[in-house]
Write a structure and sequence with these properties.
- The chain is an all-alpha fold.
- Helices cover 41% and strands 0% of the residues.
- The model has no long low-confidence stretch (mean pLDDT 78).
């Protein structure tokens, strides 16, 4: 009984290893030529390309947006800030002088 269990276990491990090795076989390798396309596949590709070109024509032109446009001035050089006239000095009066 033990021998049969070990044999089945070994077969199961080998089956798992063979399955993962077979999964690593990927797409066509470099240098391999693709299968020739049938006329129906060529026609389908042309139709798909035409539909793609038509769909590009349906997209409206995007307007150029400038989210910071209101924050910048239109001129290249920044304008000098408008300066307030200097404050007038207070005139000293004889009446308000402390004694």
């Amino acid at each position: 009984m033990q021998v049969v269990g070990r044999v089945l276990g070994a077969v199961a491990v080998l089956a798992l290893l063979v399955g993962s090795a077979a999964a690593q076989r990927g797409p066509t390798r470099y240098g391999e030529e693709d299968a020739p396309k049938t006329p129906s596949e060529i026609a389908a590709e042309k139709d798909a390309e035409k539909a793609y070109r038509r769909s590009l024509g349906n997209i409206p032109e995007q307007q150029k947006t400038d989210p910071w446009g209101t924050m910048r001035s239109d001129t290249a050089a920044p304008k000098a800030a408008a300066k307030a006239p200097p404050a007038k000095p207070k005139a000293k009066s004889a009446e308000g002088a402390p004694k």
